[in-house]
Specification:
By secondary structure, the chain is α/β, with parallel strands linked by helices. The chain is about 45% helix and about 25% strand. Strands 3, 4, 5, 6, 7, 8, 9, 10 and 11 form a nine-stranded mixed sheet that branches.
């Protein structure tokens, strides 16, 4: 049951201090961001410790390390802070034609290459004062599930380090708002005139020299699993950390690579490439725009989601 008397004695500003301390792991940087003195942060932390009956943040050589209790509380407190911010922002009219703001978007580089040309063209006419920072997000290597693979991007949304993320995964957590952008599947890409041809056999795919996109240099991907099911393997002649690097290598050699179809079509505008459908079913998924549900109360975030989605129509 809601205890209004207890809530009335609680300073909501303490939750903001907790949220920033959890993000920064440093009392000095937290004080700077809140325009407070370090002693004010220390006083707030003492009150937080008393209110929540836990040390919460322990001073170490690596900064203020959160306790297990703080780790457990952080998502809920972040949600509260986002909702309060959203309520306040919802009272402020957002006009993209006159607004000045920088948004931080995270996406795989395959999606960025499709989004950026359309988005920048629209902003020049409709929102000339809006700026964007585009950040590449990558799955965690060796993850056994989508939730594990993309947990870092979701954590960045929770912490406010990203305003919006584009992921090939719809999060299960109800605290996120998800908008489907477009379906994506993978194809093989070669240079034009490659001896592989347009209708290769499974054996021809296995015998080709491949480039694999891997941020860690790992030489195993989804294609390896599909070939292994058929008793085959392949040679990874090159690993690179991005699709852009992969397509550059493919265009100037006999390497082939498995790339997102939408990205491959966009790259073919610049490079002399050939798009080849695989002789077996490749990985496919929807690309999803994700923001914290509470952030949708902010008119500027709601506009951001609508604008990004319209770029893929």
């Amino acid at each position: 049951m809601l205890n209004h008397t207890q809530l009335a004695r609680t300073d909501v500003n303490l939750l903001l201090v907790f949220d920033l301390l959890f993000e920064e792991r440093n009392a000095g940087r937290t004080a700077t961001r809140l325009h407070l003195s370090p002693s004010a942060i220390s006083h707030a932390l003492r009150r937080l410790r008393t209110t929540l009956n836990d040390p919460l943040f322990l001073p170490t050589a690596r900064g203020m390390v959160p306790t297990a209790r703080a780790e457990a509380l952080a998502p809920a407190i972040r949600d509260i802070v986002e909702r309060i911010s959203g309520v306040i922002s919802s009272a402020e009219h957002f006009d993209p034609t006159t607004a000045t703001r920088r948004f931080r978007l995270g996406a795989p580089d395959g999606a960025v290459s499709i989004l950026v040309p359309v988005l920048m063209k629209r902003l020049e006419k409709e929102a000339p004062g809006i700026d964007f920072a585009m950040l590449q997000v990558l799955p965690r290597p060796g993850s056994n599930s989508h939730d594990q693979a993309w947990r870092d991007a979701l954590a960045d949304l929770d912490a406010g380090r990203l305003d919006l993320a584009i992921l090939p995964h719809r999060p299960a957590q109800a605290r996120f708002h998800a908008t489907t952008l477009y379906p994506e599947d993978f194809v093989f890409v070669t240079r034009s005139g490659h001896p592989l041809g347009r209708k290769p056999t499974v054996m021809a795919i296995a015998n080709a020299r491949h480039v694999l996109v891997s941020a860690t240099g790992d030489t195993s991907g989804n294609v390896d699993r599909l070939l292994a099911e058929r008793g085959l393997d392949r040679r990874i002649a090159l690993t690179v950390p991005s699709f852009l690097m992969a397509v550059s290598a493919i265009a100037s050699s006999d390497l082939i690579g498995a790339l997102p179809r939408g990205f491959a079509k966009e790259a073919a505008r610049t490079y002399d490439l050939q798009i080849v459908n695989a002789p077996f079913e490749m990985m496919s998924s929807d690309l999803i725009a994700i923001v914290p549900e509470a952030a949708m109360l902010d008119q500027s975030i709601a506009w951001l989601v609508e604008t990004v989605a319209s770029c893929f129509c």
